[in-house]
Amino acid sequence: MTALGIALLIIGAIVVVAEAHVQSLGLLGGPGVVLLGVGTVLAVSGLGGGLVLGLVTAVILVVATAGVLTLSLSKGMAVRRRRVRAGPEGMIGHVGIVQSWAEPTGKVLVDGALWQARRSACEPEDEVALHQGDRVIVERLSGLTLSVRPAEEWELIT
Q: How would you label 75-95 residue by residue, b for 16+ Cβ within 10 Å and e otherwise?
């Protein structure tokens, strides 16, 4: 019984640590906590500690491990809710400055990089033409071309 209990403790610990790195939303960590509890009861009672001591030790270990698992899951879910800051999705909403424009395309400086840009499809064509120095908002990124629209006054206030 002692060997089985120690094996379950080791497997449970490995699975709980794997949950902290894989973020399977508790599918690995939950059974890992159960394995730790069962392994503790088997190991302590197999070493002659008695069933009551095994259960008390298992409850303490399970509560501590479940707390660590809960913390890991809550931090993992918080990261998933954050806004994307890098890559193409991170460009959306940034303010750019028109460097040159010849309807419907031009060059726009966004975050220190010069991009090929075109007017957003949702803007009507009778809208005011863009000129050098005008501020624009990035609405989407298609390949290496930005879709932009003129910035409104409230968007430029920081």
A: ebeeeeeeeeeeeeeebeeeb
